[in-house]
Amino acid sequence: MRKALAFFIILCCVACGQDGKVPGNVLSKEKMANILLDFNLAEAYGRNPVTGSGTRPDTGHLADSLRERRVKTLYAQVLQVHGLTVDAFMKSYHYYELHADRMEDVYKIMNDSANAHNNFNEANRRAHDQAPLWEKWYPRSFHGRIPFLRGPY
């Protein structure tokens, strides 16, 4: 009875001592977030390829099987860019699936990264927006004389 109790206490101590540590063969939260974010971008691009002009999604001419093949090819390229095999990624993914609190941290990192990227793109778009050029070319004194510049100024 004492041996069983001692074994149980040691087992509990060892199990509690691993809290917060990620095994060595598992990807870090940041690396996992980057890979999953790249997977999301690859899937969005693979399912809705952009036409040559880059203006609108081209959804009409690709069959579903070709889209699936394209997405799988893009997934393989993402893993290749990150220097991973499918098995190595899947081991890490299953680990994070079993540890929901850590997977939530991964999703928070992904969300923060996507928001930062969107904020950067929005700031860049605003910096290069052409709308203020009309005010530079045509001072406010012309606004009443030019029909398309009339407005609540």
UniProtKB/TrEMBL annotation:
Q: Which domain of life is it from?
A: Bacteria
Domain DUF4296 as annotated: residue spans: 23-115
What is an example of a Pfam family matching this protein? DUF4296
Name this polypeptide is given? DUF4296 domain-containing protein
Q: Which organism is it from?
A: Chitinophaga costaii
